[in-house]
Amino acid sequence: MVKNKKNSEELIKILEMLVETPGPSGSEHLIRQKIQDEIRDYVDEMYTDALGNLIARTGSKGEGGKRVMVSAHTDEIGLMVTHVDDNGFARFISIGGVSPLTCLGGRVLFMNGTRGVIGIERLAANEQPTLAQLFIDTGATSKEDSTVTVGDVAGFERPLLNLGKRLVAKSMDDRAAVAVAIQALKTIKKTANEIYFVFSTQEEVGLRGAITAAYGVDPEVGIAIDVTRTGDTPKGVKMAVALGDGPAIKVRDASFIADPRVIDWMVNEAKAQGLPYQMEVLEAGGTDGAAIQRTRAGVPAGCLSIPCRYIHTPSEMVDLDDLEQCVVLLTGLLEKAIEL
Amino acid sequence: MAKTVETTKKFNPKFGKKELNLLTRLSNALAVSGDEQEVRAIVYEELKEFEASMHTDAMGNVIVVREGSGKDRVRVMLAGHMDEVGFMVTKEDGDGLFEFTIIGGIDPRQLVGKPVVIGRDHVPGVIGAKAIHLTTAAEREQELKVDALRIDVGLGGTKLVKLGDRATFDSKLAVLGPSLRGKALDDRLGVFTIIQLLKNAPENVDLLAAFTVQEELGLRGAKTAAYHLNPDIGIALDSTPANDLPDFDGEENTIHNTMLDSGPAIYLMDGATIGDRRLIKWLSETADAEGIPWQYRQPGRGGTDAGSIHKSRAGVPSVSVSVPQRYLHSAAGLVRKDDVLNTIKLLHAALSRLDKSILSSQEK
């Protein structure tokens, strides 16, 4: 693969726009709007379903073609206010998997524009903090002058950090995949397939958007694109995936076992294109692939994974080469007639 | 969406003799998850007028479709679950003693010393434990596990009790001034509310009522009911804890969940559903416009039938509304009559002003 500087710059620009837009599960309207604007000129049809999934079709079924669903989730983990106390401090619960440890000192941005920092009650020596001990300080001095109330939603706030080969941001899970899907969508010129790009909602709270999107799209084959953990950090989890070693082809995670035909399809395409790839076995976690696989009477489904360090922290790290190779691999998979 | 439909008559729900009688029968019925027949029978009896458009599905849900007469009617699914938490008899030990297991979520500390009734014959029994005279100080510090407890029917109904029979607390609904005390108000209040709404249905909507089964075991009945009904929107009517008693140290209570006397509780998010923002807005704005008190249920864990409904088919915008209740999932919960009436009032007013524009509004 020849590296194209202009493509890299465009990918980073889109990624920056995506990761800096707040959109915790259930509050995906801003991020959905941004994606809509980005892809409008490249799709044959686009609509939003009852759960807020943005569904964009390109191509129609030709000789040997299939109806394919590609799902990248637009939501990110976040917080929802449960109570604002008399002194203006906002208590909250998590939306999706948020660790109290990564909250400490964190900065948050509410969907209504309010900003705040996360503080904590006094801990006993060696006490592990819980979410119930944390609160958001929005600078309010009383319940009355607080600009947030019960039900208001916030995401973590961090700008994209470009470290050259590596990129860092909150919500690389799963905006990195959204960026890959957008770039593939723009690159696909001719295809025999009817491709539905689903920018799904509520993945972090149980693959909920993909469940309804898959039912609606009724695909013949499905691919989720999501981030996966890596085993390449000091004393980290034992796992074969490493940052920078290329797209990861999922064999299984805690939510599903990828269809072996889909795995072969991905491996063969990577080989044909001379792309590096790695096989992924993830012991925890789940992806939209599981929702697609079990819709209606069942669908062959797999997952193309982007290696990512520090998942579900405000500083998730991906490798630029991995991202670009994912775009090339996905484009190749979708352009040709699919034989499983 | 904010348009009032002239043809719909005002509905002012009350707790008259008839309503109290219905709720008493519902609350006192034995319908632990998987054996909801007693409540199903009451629903059928109460809704005779809808017989032609009523059926029981394969799971045991009672489905009633009440079509309106306006144009472009929104098809609204209302779900209230018939089942309650309780017990199942698992083994006969002889001497009138039966081993049992808990169905749904009941704190085992609630069990000791409670009178219960078993099976379709309502065989009376008691969950006994060693008398205080004989326990040691160390024993009294220990929580009694379900394995160590038995239902004792005093030999009376031994022959009528079968393995697999459901059992529940032997509690009768009581009126305590402005309050009601009883078991299984989670979710007989939902069943009660939907019956009232069907009998006073606004003409501008189609009401797709589902009296569901097995909610307490994982929203199971609502899943098949929602698939069958294929509604435009879904509303689960349930009951949720009010943890509104004063804190012992005088600190601000930040985890009340809901409060009695503050009206229907509209859900933002629980463990199973993120409420549809359009529906939350519709309900809260209706309440404000009609002067009906309301509150948010604090975002938290747990789930209602909305958890199944919103994921049905290609997706259904859904929300939950609950009556606040103290001491949920015990032998005696406590609710305010006004909170129940205001819940019915809110639903009726909101349905009366509902049209399809709600589904096309931008933010969700």
- Strands of the largest sheet of chain B, in order across it? 1-2-12-3-13-16-14-15
Helix content of chain A: 25-40%
H and E string of chain A: HHEEEEEHEEEEEEHEHEEHEHEEH
Sketch the major β-sheet of chain B: 8 strands, mixed
What is the H/E order of chain B?
Answer: HHEEEEEEEHEEEEHEHEEHEHEEHH
Total number of beta strands of chain A: 17
Count helical runs of chain A. 8
Low-confidence runs of chain A (pLDDT<50, min 5 residues)? none
Give the radius of gyration of chain B: 21 Å
Percent of sequence in beta strands of chain B: 15-25%
Q: Give the helix level of chain B as a range of percent.
A: 10-25%
Give the CA-CA distance, first to last residue of chain B: 15 Å
Major β-sheet strand ordering of chain A: 1-2-12-3-13-16-14-15
Instruction: Report the count of strand segments of chain B.
Output: 17
State mean pLDDT of chain B (0 to 100 scale). 94
Strand content of chain A: 25-35%
**Rg measurement of chain A, Å:** 20 Å
Net shape of chain B: globular
- What is the approximate shape of chain A? globular
Describe the structure using short key phrases.
heterodimer, A: 340 residues, alpha+beta, 8 helices, B: 364 residues, six-stranded antiparallel beta barrel
Structural description of this entry:
The complex is a heterodimer of chains A (340) and B (364). Chain A is of the alpha+beta class. Chain A has helices at 5-19, 29-39, 100-103, 172-187, 208-217, 260-273, 288-293, 320-335, and strands at 45-48, 54-58, 67-73, 78-84, 89-95, 107-110, 115-120, 134-137, 153-156, 161-162, 166-169, 194-200, 221-228, 248-252, 278-281, 301-307, 316-319. In chain A, strands 1-2-12-3-13-16-14-15 form an eight-stranded mixed β-sheet, sandwiched between helices. Chain A has a six-stranded antiparallel β-barrel with strand order 4-5-8-7-6-9. In chain A, strands 10-11-17 form a three-stranded antiparallel β-sheet. Chain A is globular and about 65 Å long. Chain A starts with a helix and ends in a 5-residue tail after the last helix. Chain B is α+β, with helices and mostly antiparallel strands and 364 residues long. Chain B is 25% helix and 24% strand. In chain B, the strands form three sheets. Chain B has an eight-stranded mixed β-sheet, with helices on both faces. The model of chain B has no long low-confidence stretch (mean pLDDT 94). Classes of the chains: A alpha+beta (340), B alpha+beta (364). The interface between A and B is medium-sized, with 31 and 25 residues.
